[in-house]
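Q: I'm writing a short explainer about CRISPR-associated endonuclease Cas1 for a general audience and would like to include a description of its predicted shape. Could you first generate the structure from this sequence?
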Amino acid sequence: MRQLLNTLYITRPNAYLSLNGENIVIKEDNQTIGRYPLHNIESIVLFSNLGMSPQLMGKCVDNHISICFLTPNGRFRARVVGRSYGNVLLRKKQYKVSMDDAECVKISINFILGKIYNQKWLIERYIREYPLRIQGELLKNISYQLTEYMNCVKTCTELDSLRGFEGKAQVCYFQGFNELILNQKKEFVFNGRNKRPPQDPVNSLLSFAYTLLSNDIASALETVGLDSYVGFMHQDRPGRISLALDLIEELRAPIADRFVLSLINRQQVKFEDFIINDNGAVLIKDEARKKILSEWQKRKQEKLKHPFLDEKIPWGLVPYAQSMLLARYLRGDLNEYPPFFWK
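A: Of course. Here's the predicted structure. Afterward I'll give you a sentence or two in plain language.
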């Protein structure tokens, strides 16, 4: 298993990155505000309008450090990666499988089984751990319905029907999400998923966490030699990391959703950490974003026993582990892709 290195997040909108020897230098208004050695960095995520020097970008490409450009509000712009890792035969197999509907359904079923199972398990944990603080019957009914959707998913033979059950399961899951908010219930109310733009603090946090997770997954896929832009369930679109969006499905609940609930329930974010634009968009303030990114990095260092590999790894390596297992399946080393079933 590879080492978990750091992701460097640049949240200052007017920061500019340059290269000095083997170090990243961060400047703002021509003043140096930070310096980081390249050998400790795995990827760079910029919420910056100014970007970085061509010299630094070239060095990152040579050192397999991925670069993700986001708007200051966290909207995806572009990713830059270096030379392709791994064997060209792996990517050729990926492209071949992506054009085979039956194979796409086979892999995608496991993505969605992992997604619904982990949503159900998150709800079951709250039922067990907080019986006096939640509407137990509501969550039990949702858990039961999610089990039914899992059974339906197992019998799917077409991507459209699979997407239909995935969508229904997601609506069902989010019907109980507000019950999982145990503290600050007046300030953080969830009435359903909305985005582009998010219209409440909970959806703003979810969108931000999903952006961070999808970038981590795209980097992991590129690391094992897969093309993050060619998926099996999400349709190909220019600039869309379709395979990362496939793989994120099973990791949303145990990584991103759980992280957001933790931020709210531990009162690590407050209602004052958000601003409301004239168009109704609810955005995270700059200082709060820094705090959230710090907590995200800490969460990635926490360890768990991977359910398939049966070894302890940091949460931050779960996207890499699943990418590696997907590559092994495509190479023919595994009979099927093993989804991440959180325990």
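A: For your explainer, you could say: The longest strand covers residues 31-37.
Q: Perfect, that's easy to follow.
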